[in-house]
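Thread: quick sanity check before group meeting

JM: Hey all, I'm pulling together slides for Thursday and realized we never actually wrote out the predicted structure for the chain we discussed last week. Dropping the sequence here so it's in one place. If anyone has concerns about the input, flag it before I start.
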Amino acid sequence: MAPAGTTELSSTKRSQIVTLRKEGLTYGQIDARLGVAQLTCCKAFQHYKAHKTFHSLRRSGRPQALTLYNKQIIIRTIRQHCFWSYKKVGMEAGGYTELQLHRVVRKAGYHRYVAHCNLYLSIATRHSCTSRGRGGLDAERYVAQVLEGPLLAFYTQMQDQTGKRMLVVEDGAPAHKAKVTEKARQQLGIKQLEHPLSSPDLNPIKPLWFKLKKRVQDTPGAYKSLDSLWEAAKVAWEEMSDEVVRWEMSKMGVRVWEVLKVHGRHIRF
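JM (edit): ok, ran it. Output follows.
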């Protein structure tokens, strides 16, 4: 908030300051061009670097009452950014507290995720999709929070980058097989990789997922907050070498042969 007797900079003016500063102008040159004091220019630029916004931060005090429109904005922001912290979502949605977001999200029946869709295409479909009442996702929520959310964005991104058709691996949970899910996949153009039901031995993501979780567990402080958990997961994934991935992929031929020998039953891998 601007001190008493002064005028707070508009978002347009702050945008001009940041633009000129990024172009290499000194604060003195910006002052001469815009008529804004050098210290004010410096504070405006530091504000943008710290908060990535040209707007003032929300003032402290009693949280504003949420209207139906506010709640819709919060839910829409949550769906667009499933893996952001409550603090970041609150700022993006318009300056709401973490407690307000928690209440809105919980009442709407949404689940917060800790994995990120860019780690691996099939991770987005690995969240629990059990029946209602056991804490998992039903088909409607799976469509809204996964298929129409981060999975579709990543699916489209990978097809554009590689020029190849992408296939999604799902594990056959009830939410994956529901008619509403099948209809949504058709409408979104998402293709599945057909494979036998309950066949984790034929999925190379399994051992990689195990290694990833083990590295996160061994990271000190990883479970202090959602942000620290996400950072630990990113570091663990970045440290997963291509050699490790290729090694797990190279064993798939042997796995298929072993599964055939036991007529589809479980194998020790």
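AS: nice. The CA atoms of residues 47 and 53 lie 8 Å apart. The longest helix spans residues 139-162.
JM: adding both to the slides.
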